[in-house]
Amino acid sequence: MQTSLRIDGALYREAKAAAASEGVTLTRFIESALRMRLRPVRPGSGLPVFDSGVRGEGNVIELIALAEREYSGEQLAKLESAGS
Hints:
By secondary structure, the chain is an all-alpha fold. It is 58% helix and 0% strand. The protein is built from four helices and no strands.
């Protein structure tokens, strides 16, 4: 189906550039965006959850101990400075 839409110029240019960077036509890019927006949201489907492979309750003390075992002193210092 063919249709005409009025789209803000800046938004159009941004969408066209994004489509080009993904190697798809603007039509395909917009269709994909509409499909994602119209897909029903199921409860609990917000963010993906990944299994880290680490077992335990994951409290702060256990996580600090794990980090100390896994990383050298220099690496751990970088992690600590990145967190602040």
